[in-house]
Known about the structure:
Shape: elongated
Amino acid sequence: xxxxxxxxxxxxxxxxxxxxxxxxxxxxxxxxxxxxxxxxxxxxxxxxxxxxxxxxxxxxxxxxxxxxxxxxxxxxxxxxxxxxxxxxxxxxxxxxxxxxxxxxxxxxxxxxxxxxxxxxxxxxxxxxxxxxxxxxxxxxxxxxxxxxxxxxxxxxxxxxxxxxxxxxxxxxxxxxxxxxxxxxxxxxxxxxxxxxxxxxxxxxxxxxxxxxxxxxxxxxx
Length: 221
C-alpha cells in the first residue's frame, strides 16, 4: 500500500515549474504569429466586403439611367469632399458614396449615403442599395437634420462592418487614424469605381486613407 502511494505522488514542484516555463516560452514564440494571422484574416474579410461594394457599384452603373450616371459623374456637386490623387495609379479620385463600418457613438451612418447631398448621387446610392438588398433605405439620404435620423443613422448594426480596426498611417493623407468607413470613389480617368477606407469625424469632412479594392494597398495585402 505504501509503495502504491509513492508511485502515485503526482508532479513535484520543480516539474510543475519546468512545465510552466516551457508553456511560457511557447506562448511567447507563438503569440506574435497568431496575432499577425488574426490581423491578416480581418484585413482579408474587409477586402472581400469591399469587393461586394464594388460589385454593387457596377450594378448601379449598369442601370442605364441618366440620373444615376450623372450622380456617378458628380454633376453639380459641391466641394465637401474634394478629389485626391491615388498614390499608386496617380489618377484623380472623386468620392461619391460612403457608409460607416464601425459604430461611432449614437450615430452609425451604417447604410450607404451620398457624399455631396445632391439628388443625382442619391439616385446612384439607391441603385447600390438595391444591389445590397436594402430597398427600405432608398431615397432617404438627402436632407438629414440633426436630431432627425434618417434610414442611415442609429442602426443597431452596420451593413458593411470593418473587421480590422488598428490605427494606421494613411497612404493618402499621411496622417494616422483608425479605419472607420467604406468610401466609393470614381476614378476620373477610367470612370471605374474604386473602394477606399477612411474616416468621417463629427463636424469634419470625409477623409480617404487606404485603397482596398481593386488592387489593395500594401497595408491590406
